[in-house]
Design brief:
- The complex is a heterodimer of chains A (about 250) and B (about 325).
- Chain A has one domain: HUPs (Rossmann fold).
- Chain A contains six helices and 15 strands.
- Chain A has a nine-stranded mixed β-sheet, sandwiched between helices.
- In chain A, α2 packs across α5 and α3 packs across α4.
- Chain B has about 325 residues and is α/β, with parallel strands linked by helices.
- The termini of chain B are far apart.
- In chain B, the strands form four sheets. Chain B has a seven-stranded parallel β-sheet with strand order 7-11-6-1-4-5-12. Chain B has a five-stranded parallel β-sheet with strand order 15-14-16-17-18. In chain B, strands 8-9-10 form a three-stranded antiparallel β-sheet, with no helix packed on it.
- Classes of the chains: A alpha/beta (about 250), B alpha/beta (about 325).
- Chains A and B meet through α3, α4, β9, β10 and β11 of A and α3, α4, β7, β9 and β10 of B.
Amino acid sequence: MKALICIGHVPDTTSKVKFTDGDTKFDTTDIQYIVGPYEELALTRLLDIKDAGTEMHITAINVGNAETEATLRKALAMGADEAIRINADPTDAAFVAKQIAEVYKNGEFDVVVTGKESIDYNGGQVEGMIGAFLDLPTVAGASLFELEGDKIKMEQEIDGGKQVLEASFPFVVSAGKGFAKEPRIPNMRGIMTARRKKLEVIEPVEQKNMTEVIKHYLPEAKPACKMVSPDNVEELVRLLHEEAKVI
Amino acid sequence: MAVLIYTENFDGKFKKSSYELVSYGVEIAKQEGTEAIAVTIGNVDESALKELGNYGAKKVIKVGNDELKDFSAKAYTAVIEQVAKNIGANVILFGNNPSGRAIAPRLSVKLNAGLVAGAVAIPSSLAPFTVRKRAFSGKAFADVVVNSDTKVVTLSQNSYKIVEAKEDISIEDFTAEIPEGAYAVKPIEVVKSTGKLSVTDADILVSAGRGLKAAENWGMIEEMAEIMGAGISCSRPVSDLGWRGHDEHVGQTGKVVAPNLYIAVGISGAVQHLAGVNSSKIMVCINTDADAPFFEAADYGIIGDAFDVVPKLNEALKKFYAEG
């Protein structure tokens, strides 16, 4: 299996979100960047399949400026074989998807794997867009990914349940919860060998931006929590009914 | 120009989220001076289709091809693309749910349209088309401008109020062309989650965390949910430990929810959990630890042991619902 996996470079999940330049930009001061949690699951699953004896070559890809290389190195330390960085600002989802589709065309990949969504702008768009650019089938938010002979068995959440799917290569899939159990943590050997693995930098192809984020807002501050005594739970029921009007 | 609304049906029935989406689409159409047209795929009878007219849709297009029985992102996108071109839609709306998330990105590439995923409000301006969306997994919002002529938007659930506006709705049948290879990823089986209110559909969610100590202690949570007609959700450690299924995990890496009432029992309120729930209208926190961060986000709080408070609260709720 030759897999192209998109690695998101996103703020750590514990980050306190702040904005700068008149709330037009995300404030990166003191922010730690990580491999997106869904991409971590995706890569873990591919590595599990590889460890179980399947021939596998994993190329990690990111569209971003030089600072994202540290995140790509983390993916290499986890076990990806090589990495590609498309040297550009990831301005919108269509732009990013177009770059990845180009790399797919120039390689001989069986499958493109992404995370279900990035945890910054939560678009969840790249997988579907890559599929559309390449006219490949897409599976969104898969919770299972198993090799069965020369086929891949997957499960995808659909409204009101889940769908069990069987796919032949090639296709595009985004990984959701359950794709792998626990994300892998790179070991020392992985970290050492990651430094020597190939990280290629490629210039972007042209793609018009369709969307633009112009301003950010933080949720409105809530009034202080109203405390109710544990010996007077009836009061909570009354407040929910009469004051909050939610029951 | 027209606003096209993808209303999905579940075995022939529409859900509240579809009516929210129709109300949203009708308002955009009103502002643009165009018509709101719904489209649905599958066998839906006339009475269900007519219900979409109660929320202001002028027309509903029913795509009844037998081949479309199973969901496929590629097939469904091709169908919506044909309908959108046929009616000259300039705005196409989806719910921010599994099918919307699977179709909208594909469609946006096909139609050369910009996509806003997870919108939370009516566009603040039509030219330039500007919509507010959820960002940073609920920790923030962002205003996004769409530069293309055609726009695709997915609407977050529970973020737009249903507006009743009776229209005499017309029903049109449409037969779509299914592209070759549309089912190359072959659907083998559909596993329906029956009898359970999904966490994203529930108006009230009763949620519990590691504070409950073991899977067998969920009885009182299930009881509360039953009394209130609520859904059940949990924090990440609970689903990671296998005490509850992943489908109940709400938070940054689980489901993002926005119920009217969210009751958190034994959940400390880590920033990742709050991100997924802080769009709830009212939040209640029950926790032994007075310093639990959830109390800062909650509207109402009880400092106390869940094993003491929840049974008492269940009794009080039973009494409340019995008295109506």
